[in-house]
Amino acid sequence: MVNPNFAGYAANCGAVGIRVTKKENLVEAINKALEYNGPALVEILTDVNLI
User: Fold this and answer.
1) Is the pTM of this model over 0.85?
2) Where residue 49 falls among pLDDT bands split at 50, 70, 90?
């Protein structure tokens, strides 16, 4: 089973969708989402073995 691209789905719905795959990009992504004047979604991809 493969998860959908939630960031892409958010963008298709008119929101800002940001997909994060590296931890060094997380703070920047969250800041962009908070600065956006409208709905925003930050999708964070993680390693299931680290949870």
Assistant:
1) no
2) confident
